[in-house]
Specification:
Subcellular location: Endoplasmic reticulum; Membrane
Strand order of the largest sheet: 1-2
Shape: elongated
Membrane topology: Multi-pass membrane protein
Pfam family, one: TPR_16
Oligomer: single chain
Strand content: under 5%
Distance between the termini: 101 Å
EC number: 2.4.1.109
Number of helices: 34
Structural class: mainly alpha
InterPro entries: O-mannosyl-transferase_TMTC, TMTC_DUF1736, TPR-like_helical_dom_sf, TPR_rpt
């Protein structure tokens, strides 16, 4: 309701509040919760949302962050800014057949700004921005929920009134501390969802501003409607879900501004009743505003379609198996099962996983599958809520339930598989916006229970307990997102059937040098998904290095049969001394797939074995251009230049590598060796100590530091680190001989001193 009292004396805020509160039931009347002034409520929400995710600020780049940030050329200054408008989220051309068509140029632009201000790939700045965005969104939620739960009311001075301060605070707290949001906040790639949500909410609040009476007495402002459309477009340029705010604004206009009774309207439409104007459909301005929203939305979608091209994104069966099922029944029943799992994650966000694909959720193929119960429960609840939203005689109840369902369902539609195939089974990040609807329904349910409960304080304590549990769950989940090792291992108990989880755990172990443990997880990944080429590749390469060539050849040959174009990645011919075949295979693979850093890396190893040093360096350089964090390629370049006496060039390459991967202890070690040979002892010592701090159990690190001290003349420190090295690895090559030489020298010095 909008007040138009131009000639009357302006009432006080309290009087206006009292009069408006009498127009419909007040949700806060039955809610036993904190009543705080608006600024204090927002401060509390900001603080608690910050506490939930603060421990993720110094996390690493994990999971998809590597592809979207580290390997994304669009972040670097040498890439023209204009290219961002023609590339997808991962830096590939939208016109490419391999593009996922995820068009989020504004999100990539914020990554680029982060990168330029930090002067490199330092994750802290990226994480801090994500945390700040979530805090800002949570604060905005106080205003959004005050409108959705209390209605849109203005005083005569044009100030919007919060008619549900307690309910809006509770709903905002529920949103701020929901553990399902951890992926968006602690995972840097979640920036897309956060930015989308920010402009999504600003669009909604802008639309609400359109109904604040202006000086001319007009009841709505075309300017603010257009601003809302523009903000919706910006939200979509951050992530595709953003476009749904235009539909929600239309729903809000119909239900709250025009107070349309949907059931009554449907009945009149079915009976072709000519009194539709009385139902509110043709009230002044509604059709005009909806036309503006629809025209704006259609224009935005058309422009995006022209930029993206007509081809759909290419996904595989392992990404979304239900969408590849031949039977319409199987597809439908599994899509609905996925919806029920998303709903369960909102209700009970305890089992969270970074990836739900690759067999994590087996397909339902028969009605005898007990999981059908989940579908029945979901639709029983939804139908019950929809009936109440349509048929209840309480207009206040109808409005809140319809808005709650609208905010729950409409933002989820792009991820529902209804309009196009998506590249995931379940993605926790896509529930960020739908959780607004969940918070509305939860808060309304709490108010109904409070109305019936005799001991309201007990109910309030129970809700407070839920909030505290969620805060602790957020903190725990944020800590798991700090590193890939913790993130991947946390998924083993949630999705033990997910081959990708086992593959990622194995890869993480292999990268740390623990090949024996990695083999176990790679074998399990291949067992769960016998066509998992990447797992076969990595397992085959480890077995090849352990000289178990027969099994390696079986695995890699099978991988070649599944994906012939990836043959060169495996380097099997190299290990079997078939050098010419190996080189030919590598170049064939590069011809078919130009962005192939591992192929260039293996090609470099082949050239190094053949003493073709220039070719090896060029191949490894190509690998680092395609994948700047390719530590093995950088290390091999440094070691080869060091071994061939090119110390100055080795030092330059080492410094370049550490700028890109500042926390890689193996690069610190390699560069420290070069600096030691160049007699830059102090700088070499600092790098050795830093490498040892990162990896204290590496015998070679202590052994080479001891050699540095030995050359430098710091004999006591040399003796100490030789002993540590021998303790860690008694068979360390050369260390025992150097230690014995040092002992004899120390004995000679003692004799001279005596």
């Amino acid at each position: 309701q909008i007040f138009n009292q131009h000639n009357a004396e302006a009432p006080s805020l309290e009087q206006a509040f009292h009069r408006m509160a009498q127009t419909e039931p007040n949700l806060d009347h039955d809610v036993s919760w904190l009543l705080l002034p608006s600024h204090w409520a927002k401060a509390v929400v900001a603080l608690i949302s910050f506490l939930c995710f603060a421990n993720s600020y110094d996390g690493d780049f994990v999971f998809d962050d590597s592809e979207a940030i580290i390997n994304n050329k669009d972040l670097r200054a040498e890439t023209p800014l204009g290219d961002l408008w023609y590339h997808d989220f991962w830096g590939s051309k939208l016109s490419s057949n391999t593009s996922h068509k995820s068009y989020r140029p504004l999100t990539v632009l914020t990554f680029r700004i982060n990168y330029l201000f930090a002067g490199g790939f330092y994750p802290v700045g990226f994480h801090v921005i994500n945390i700040m965005l979530h805090c800002t969104i949570s604060v905005l939620m106080v205003d959004v929920f005050s409108i959705l739960l209390g209605g849109l009311q203005f005083s005569n001075k044009g100030r919007r009134l919060n008619l549900a301060p307690k309910s809006s605070l509770l709903a905002a707290l529920l949103f701020a501390v929901h553990p399902v949001h951890t992926e968006c906040v602690a995972g840097i790639v979640g920036r897309a969802d956060l930015l989308c949500a920010l402009f999504f909410l600003l669009s909604f609040l802008g639309y609400c501003k359109a109904f604040r009476e202006n000086k001319e007495g007009h009841t709505f402002s075309v300017f603010w409607v257009l601003v809302s459309v523009i903000l919706g477009a910006i939200a979509m340029l951050c992530k595709e879900q953003g476009i749904t705010i235009l539909g929600l604004n239309a729903v809000f206009d119909a239900l709250v501004i025009n107070k349309i009774n949907l059931l009554e309207l449907i009945q009149k439409l079915l009976h072709k009743d000519k009194s539709l104007e009385n139902a509110g459909l043709l009230r002044k301005g509604l059709l005009f505003r909806i036309t503006l929203l629809m025209s704006g939305g259609a224009s935005i979608l058309y422009i995006r379609w022209r930029i993206m091209g007509t081809g759909p994104p290419a996904f595989t069966e392992v990404d979304n198996p239900a969408s590849f099922a031949d039977s319409l029944f199987v597809r439908a029943i599994n899509y609905n099962y996925y919806y029920s799992l998303n709903a369960w994650l909102l209700l009970c966000p305890w089992w969270l996983c970074f990836d739900w694909s690759m067999g994590c959720i087996p397909l339902i193929k028969s009605v005898s599958d007990w999981r059908i119960i989940a579908l029945a429960a979901l639709w029983f609840c939804l139908i019950g809520l929809i009936c109440q939203a349509l048929c209840s005689e309480d207009s206040h109840k109808r409005r809140i339930l319809t808005l709650g369902l609208g905010f729950l369902i409409i933002p989820f539609l792009p991820a529902s598989n209804l309009f196009f195939r998506v590249g995931f089974v379940i993605a926790e990040r896509v529930i960020y916006l739908p959780s607004i609807g969940y918070c509305i329904l939860f808060t309304y349910g709490f108010s109904l229970l409070s109305k019936q409960a005799k001991k309201k304080k007990i109910l309030a304590v129970a809700v407070l307990g839920i909030l505290l549990i969620n805060v602790m769950r957020c903190a725990l989940r944020s800590s798991q997102w700090r590193s890939e090792e913790q993130l991947f291992r946390s998924a083993l108990s949630v999705c033990p059937l997910n081959a990708k989880v086992h593959y990622n755990v194995g890869k993480n172990l292999a990268d740390k040098g623990n090949q024996s443990a990695a083999i176990k997880y790679y074998r399990e990944a291949v067992r769960l998904n016998p066509k998992y080429v990447h797992a076969m590749n990595n397992l085959g390469n480890i077995l090849k290095e352990r000289n178990e060539l027969h099994e390696a050849e079986e695995l890699l040959s099978l991988a070649v049969q599944i994906h012939p174009e990836t043959r060169a990645q495996f380097g099997l011919e190299n290990s079997l001394r078939r050098f010419e075949e190996a080189e030919q295979s590598y170049w064939t693979a590069i011809k078919h797939r130009k962005k192939y850093p591992d192929c260039y890396y293996n090609l470099g190893r082949l050239y190094a074995d053949l003493n073709r040093h220039i070719d090896a360096l060029n191949a490894w350089r190509n690998a680092t251009v395609l994948k700047p964090e390719h530590s093995l390629a950088w290390n091999n370049m440094i070691i080869l230049l060091d071994n061939t006496g090119n110390l100055a060039q080795a030092e330059a390459v080492g410094r370049e590598a550490l700028e890109l991967i500042p926390n890689d202890h193996s690069l610190m070690f390699s560069l420290a060796n070069v600096l030691g040979k160049s007699q830059k002892y102090k700088e070499s010592e600092a790098l050795f100590l830093k490498a040892i701090k990162a990896n204290p159990n590496a015998a070679s690190y202590h052994g080479n530091l001891a050699v540095l001290y030995h050359r430098w003349g710091n004999l006591d420190l040399a003796k100490k680190h030789y002993e540590v090295s021998l303790k860690l690895d008694p068979m360390a090559p050369g260390t025992k001989e150097n230690y014995n030489l040092l002992r004899r020298k120390l004995e000679q010095l003692q004799k001279k001193g005596g």
